[in-house]
Amino acid sequence: MTSFAETQVQYYDGQLNVYPLPENMMAEGFQPKLSGKRGQPLAANWLNWLFRELFRKVNRDRLSDGNGVAVIKPTETNCFVTVHAMVKADNTKWISAIGYKTGTAAPVMHVIGSGTLGLGALTATDVPITGATADTVAVRVTVTDAQ
Fold it and tell me: Does the pLDDT at position 64 exceed 90?
C-alpha cells in the first residue's frame, strides 16, 4: 500500500472525505476525555487527511514505473527530486541527478555524476533515463518537501 485517500470525494451533504486538521489541533493535538467531559471525536475526514499525509511522507522513496522512468506523483509540487539509476549488470553505467519541481511544471534537474546514462525529456511526472533499456536499469526517485 503506497497511498491513502488520494481521491477527493464530496458526499451528498457537502462534506469532503479529506479535510485538513484545524491549526489549533495541529499545535495542541486531540483533546482527551477529561473528568465530566467527552473527548474530542476524530472526524473521518481529519483521519483521512492525516493518513494521506503520512503515506505521502513514508512512500516518497520508490522505484521506477518499470519502464526506466523515475515517476513523480502529480500531487508532488514545490519539492526536491533526487534520481539514481544504474544498469543492473554493469555498475559502470549509472547516473545521479538532483532537481527542484515548482508547481505542475517539469522539474529542473542537474546531473551530479554519470557513467554513460543520461536524462531524457522531462515532464511534470516523468524523469526518463537514457542509455539503457527499461528491463536492464534500476531506478530510484526520492521526492522531499521543500518546507
Answer: no
